[in-house]
Fold:
Amino acid sequence: MTGFSMESGIDGATSRRLDALAQRVGTPAYVYDLAVLRSSFAALRGDLPDSELFYSLKANPHPRVVAELIASGAQAEVSSTGELDTALAAGCPAEHVLYSGPGKTREEVEQALRRGVRLFSVESVTDRQRLADACAETDSTAEYLVRVNSPRGSTGGSLRMGGRASAFGVDHTDTQSLDQLLRPLGRARPVGLHTFSATNIADPAELAAEFEQSVRTVAAIAGRAGFTPSVLDLGGGFPAPFARPGPVPRLPRLRAAVDAVLDTAFPDRHRLGTRVVFESGRALAASAGTLLTTVLDVKRSGDRTFAVLDAGVNVLGGMSGLGRLRPPSVVPIPLGAEAPSSRRDVDNPVTLVGPLCTPLDVLAPSIDASYLYPGQVLAIPNTGAYGPTASLLGFLSRTPPAEVVLDGDRLVAVGRTELRTQEEILCD
Ligand SMILES: Cc1ncc(COP(=O)(O)O)c(C=O)c1O
Structure:
């Protein structure tokens, strides 16, 4: 079998380039293409109603990735001082940052205010108190969105943040807290509502149903409290394939569906200039990334074949490796020249495992991949979101993967995260 096939979604020229890159920088290596990021941003933008689109840095905080999306017109949704620093360094103005997250510390809120951030998502009465205290401490004012845990609009999503008991936001039924939060406190002033139901909702009709539910829920909350929101952050849930070939789905009917429910629920929104906001990580970044990995060993045990790769859950899908999510089922694409003619096809099914000394280091429990042989380079496509920083980078102290940035045919940068322990002197 040659390294490429039409079904794999990687053409011969791309495959040869990736293979050459793997030889040059070594594996495991992530390759991000800025040109793909630009087109992903334009595609999602085009599918949405008139609105603002925030890039969620948790998906991929690589400075070049963030800078490209900011230059394309994205604003930044951040949940830590580290993400905030990256967004600002990438050219995002502080007034284009939304600071969110269920466990903000007083120190990080103060840091954000000192750096000029003015918009926060507050997740509870305590979180809002912290923001008000930080405003007083830093002599600043802030605006905030009240994050609401709205009822489920569909059964979709690979990971739900709302529509059930959740650490995120305030339950839509908790009218006492919501009424309280929709009134200002100190120098912190509510300007809108925020929902984020689930990530990666594959069915476009279910995604639209989630947005419709969210809009109806926040309209009811605002109406009851006599609050006129100037910002409606409807979150996201936009789908993208993870670690397998395939295009990011387009959402041709989403714009009309969301516009219709907004027009019904907030009929004055155009006259009032209400801002509508969406957030996305994976739909913007996933397709821009490819992980290159090398097969280290291929061996039989019992009734199956194990292929050991140099990239495991320390590099990709580490959260799944801990058993907290469904196991990923990575679908690799073989790269490079014809395999040595001396090799024999291995028997299917093949379990793809990483190099870590734990049975949890599984990338694909059972795939058809009889073409694998030691030394072969594989490309794992659609890995631009939730790659290295969502993995167990420090586990077993292996060198973090290289990260290569391309812009189409042009090599822009090659780098690598460094993990090291720095000692601080805390006492005399
Ligand atoms: C509040 C919030 N915004 C945005 C995102 C990004 O989600 P995705 O990468 O699926 O677009 C998440 C995901 O956890 C989230 O919780």
Observations:
- The first strand starts at residue 29 and ends at 33.
- Residues 1-7 have pLDDT under 50 and may be disordered.
